[in-house]
Amino acid sequence: MIRLDVWVTLPNGERHHAGELITSDPNQTRGAIQGEFRYSEHYLALPSAFALDPQSLPLKPGVFAADRPTAGIHAVFEDALPDDWGRRLLVHRYRLRPTEQRAPNLLRCLGDNGMGALSFGEGSLPPRTTQMPDHSVEQLLEVALAFDAGESVVEADLSTLFAAGSSPGGARPKAVVHDNNRHWIAKFPRVKDTFDVVRLEAATMALAQHSGLEVPQFKVMDCGEHAAFLIQRFDITEHGRRHMISMQTLLKADNYYVLSYSDIAEVLRRYSANPSTDLEKLYRQMIFNALIGNTDDHLKNFAMLHDDSGYHLSPAFDLIPNIGSNSEHVLRFGLSATAPKRQEVIGMAKAFNLGSAQANSCLDAILCIISQWREVFHEHQVPEQDKKRLQAGIEQRINNLQAH
Known about the structure:
This protein is an alpha+beta fold. It has 14 helices and twelve strands. It folds into three domains: 120 residues, no CATH class; 96 residues, Phosphorylase Kinase, domain 1 (2-Layer Sandwich), CATH 3.30.200; 160 residues, Phosphatidylinositol 3-kinase Catalytic Subunit, Chain A, Domain 5 (Orthogonal Bundle), CATH 1.10.1070. The strands form three sheets. The protein has a five-stranded antiparallel sheet with strand order 4-3-2-1-5. A four-stranded antiparallel sheet has the order 6-7-9-8. The longest helix is centred in the last third of the chain and has 18 residues. The radius of gyration is 21 Å and the shape is globular. The termini are far apart. The model has no long low-confidence stretch (mean pLDDT 91).
């Protein structure tokens, strides 16, 4: 059995004991884990208390069963964990055997180093806030490339990578770094990359910003033969943290799912403190993803943040063109997962509380920006061969959404 105290750090820096998380040992037949969570009386009495998951953990007394036998914990707690890359580092850092790599034990190892405002500890005191050492991006990139390639890495360099790289999510190599008193996620190239993904992501984020999407601050840092893409963390405030919950959690979409942008819109209508603003932001991002070919639009790439006024749609992140030659998006446009036609996108406007005229105006404005994608990619030094490989797909998508 694992028992963890769950702590939440508010944007003003206050830390509160939010509740208790208990999971059983895996059973002997299928390895299923039973888990439950209850809010603390202290947290329930706070004027600033809010539901950590308004869908599955409403703010009230009682025991909430996880009903997720593979993970054994509610999905909102798993949102704090990194995905592939960070989990690999956690496993190596704590030398976890396969039987020790389940989500509850990973949370125990993660402590205060996760994404969002939640931290996990054992005992009456909150886990100590880890002071991240100031490692150079160049040093981290070099070690990350070696680790990703499966090369032998000396223990001191591994410790450097473990300290900086075990909290960010996603599959690509990355690390948390500090620069000018700001917290950044540095995203590195992979050994087997066939595109310059670093410069492609920077160019795509710039194009998104020009298209009216809210995006975090970002920059590219040259590191000798390679480069790193730095994106400012939007879950960290000047004094504290913002709670973060993924759309995958809010839609209870474990494993394989067939869902659309309209399903995310329904979540925003239900839980956003400002649904009209957030729905328009989501509609704009849907159009952008359709035009640029961001087929990796899975639900972990959409999140809500909590502040003093409630839940809001997070800034857009993990935006990249279709470098995997995927014929379908993860999320559907209505009933279709392929690149949508104009009438499909306009027909979806009602789900976002938008009228036809407003939807057409939004689409045409973004089309005008995306039509200049080559110039923006050139400004961000995307290699010519990468632009040529992406050109046919992007131009076809632009043509699909133009008025004829």
